[in-house]
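Sorry to interrupt, but I need a hand with the structure work. Leave the record below and I will have a look:
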Amino acid sequence: MSVLVNGSPMMEFRPTRGLRHEDPLAPFLFLIVAKGLVGLVSQALRMNLLKGVKVGKNEVEISMLQFTDNTLFMCEDSYNSVIFVKAILRCYEIASGLKIHFHKSKLASINVERNPLEFYAKSLNCILMRVPFKYLGVVVEGNPRNKQFWESILNNLSDRLSAWKGRFLSLAGRIHLIKSVLNTLPIFYSSFFKALTSVYNKIISIQRSFLWAWGRDKRSIFWVS
């Protein structure tokens, strides 16, 4: 890279240190480098070295999903698929200079026996993950008809809209905080799952308690299942 001084580039130099944590430039650089991983996976699909998972009535083939710094591989149950995924990641390491932490990665399955799954995890040197599990805050293979499924969401709402926080905010501040919290958590989960009527009633109760009961001596709000 080089630095512009009065509009003119100076001598190029090689950086020896990475970006600091939460640097605003980090997501942009990650997207540029992650494009190379997408290209490797696309080439493996064209050569029939890797087969993704077909979903929906139209049988759309999905092999990889990326969200910020999270990457999710999906492939059929075979040892060759596991080996090709590991080969793609190793080639990506060599080409980009990045280090992939296999021991921090996790392997999950649907309708796959335990023995081959343990063998796959050992081959990838990663952690074996059981279902249900959380991905990007959403429970995978959870039962949205069960109240326990929504318990963590309601507890999170209760923590963010605690009664003691309202004592230090004006009415306009409380309304703004309610809109901010309710627009991020419930709508995000409701876009994936259909909530129970009791869950919506509890959300309304938390909202009212924060807005109008903020002056009372109310220490906490409990979710009764």
